[in-house]
Amino acid sequence: MPFRIALSGLNAAQTDLSITGNNIANASTTGFKRSRAEFADVYAVAFEGISDIATGNGVSVAAVSQNFTQGNIDFTERNLDIAVRGQGMFVLNDSSGQSFTRAGAFHVDRDGYVVNQAAQKLQIFPAVTGGTFNTGVLTDLQLSTSDGPPQATSSITASLNLSSSEAPPVTVPFDPLDATSFNSSTSTVIYDSLGTSHTSTMYYVKTAVDNQWDVYQYIDGNVVPSGGASPITMTFNSDGSINGPLTINYDAVPSGTGADPIQVTLDYTNTTQYGSPFAVNGLAQNGFTTGRLSGIDIDSEGVVFARFTNGQATPLGKIALANFPNVQGLRQLGDTNWAQTYESGDLLLGEANTASFGLVQSGALETSNVDIAASLVNLITAQRNYQANAQVISAADTITQTIINI
């Protein structure tokens, strides 16, 4: 009996040594969660009516449990390195099905899919029209290698100050090639439906009537009328605020590139007429040309944006996070991945920064939660336990030898 008891102690200590050694070996493994051995004593089952004193039959490994506490966050300055602050796991997919991980070191494969080192694809909620996401569907995150489509300019917003102290031009009639025939001008680049750039120039001519200006618009040197008329007269109130029109809807004009005709609306809501000199305080238009993919950005809520060279950013989807009622019930797969089991409970999918889910940190990785100092102490303890059980075997052997020699 002492041999069997001591042997169970040796096996238990060996398991403890293996688990502690595995923790130490993975102290630098991204997203690794440390484990521990949990032991239980073993007693023989007593039959009814038998009152023999139970001395115990040794020890058994009751469970190997994992500690899912948060690891430290290390910043890497690499956009596809992603960490989760708080609860939640990344969802991965490959030919074997779904798996889950806290290791967020991803990269782009040859087909544009965002994958980990095992070629498992990161799962997202796809983007839908209106800037929302379909949280009922999971799909692979794939970066588009095609050019981003252009958007034709449809409006220009001008925030100007036209100087009330200026006099009407000395040269009449207005001629865009003669600077003495107008008081001020400004221009901006606009785009047609094919993304070709054009120059839109606005000219401002003070009239003989107080608080009144004539406004002309030219695109690529050609006049653009509004309602067939040019110029459009703009008036101001005595306090310098604009009286009208606040917006001018210009007629469509040919693009000259095979694109749709160019038609823009000029918004002068924030334009004033004060005594200070002419000033362009703001001039913005809503069009843009084509763009090539230059990178991706991921915000704290897990929204993945494709960033293009034309300055635009398009949402591709939102990173899906997974959680379980009992994360201790997950089955380890290797490669810092876990699989769902009956003991883990049903899969709970959600979005970052909602319910119990944490935040997503781009440009960072979660390190292993192994405490090296504590693991080394556990290693020494397991070693002493192993040696002590070996001593029990040695003592039992000495007693047995003594009996044999009688």
Return the average pLDDT rounded to an integer.
92
Helix content: 10-25%
Largest sheet: 12 strands, antiparallel
Radius of gyration: 37 Å
Annotation, overall tally of beta strands: 30
- Structural class determined from secondary elements: mainly beta
Provide the domain count.
3
Secondary structure tally, helices = 2
Strand content: 35-45%
How would you describe the overall organization of this protein?
The protein is mainly beta and 406 residues long. The protein has three domains: 2-69 and 368-404, no CATH class; 76-146 and 293-366, no CATH class; 155-285, Tick-borne Encephalitis virus Glycoprotein, domain 1, CATH 2.60.98. The protein has helices at residues 2-25, 372-404; strands at residues 35-42, 58-66, 73-75, 82-85, 89-94, 97-101, 107-108, 114-115, 121-128, 132-133, 139-140, 155-161, 184-191, 197-206, 212-219, 222-223, 232-236, 242-244, 247-249, 265-267, 279-285, 293-298, 303-308, 313-319, 321-323, 331-334, 337-339, 348-350, 359-362, 364-366. Strands 5, 6, 9, 10, 11, 22, 23, 24, 25, 26, 27 and 28 form a twelve-stranded antiparallel β-sheet that branches. Strands 13, 14, 15, 16, 17 and 18 form a six-stranded antiparallel β-sheet that branches. The protein is rod-shaped, with a radius of gyration of 37 Å. The chain starts with a helix and ends with a helix. The model has no long low-confidence stretch (mean pLDDT 92).
